[in-house]
Amino acid sequence: MARISKSTPELVAIATTLRDLTSAGAPVKTGNLRDTIKSFNTTNRMITFDAVSRRARVKVDYAPPGANYGRYWNNPYGEGSGTTATIKKRYPNKFNYAIKALQDTSIDMLIANYTNALAKDVVAEVVAELRKN
Questions:
Q1: What is the DSSP letter of 109?
Q2: Residues 68-85: what's their mean pLDDT?
Q3: How far apart are CA 120 and CA 111, in angstroms?
Q4: pTM over 0.70
């Protein structure tokens, strides 16, 4: 079976799409938040593997160093004038932008493609082993 890695095309596609959707959904009013999200979330940082099961994990940092304000947009707090709760009322469609990116149907499609690619690799490995015997 082909060994999955950080350069597996299907995993790279998932990571890249997730990064792009998250940065595109980030609010404009927060300075360099969009650019920082996009530049910080490289496939090397986003894709990790469980040491035992070798399961791939793809994660996106919506508040990387230099863009700390992102965490307040994705998880608003406080009440009253000038707080994130007030801004949430002005820009309701911009909140929870990282979660919205994860829920995008294109991510589901890319995960299905990755799963299908893994299944084909398993079948190919089984067929190769059967032919040896």
A1: H
A2: 72
A3: 14
A4: yes
Q: How far apart are CA 19 and CA 21, in angstroms?
A: 6
From 99, 118, 133, 131, select the one nearest 1 (Cα to Cα).
118
Residue for token pair 């004038």: 81
Per the CB < 8 A criterion, the answer to whether 15 and 43 are in contact is yes
CA atoms within 13 A on the CB side of 80: 1
Q: Determine contact, residues 71/95, Cβ cutoff 8 Å.
A: no
Hey, what are 30's tokens? 């927060």
Please state the domain extents for the chain: 25-102
Residue 64 burial (CB count, 10 A): 18
Distance CA 129, CA 125 (A): 6
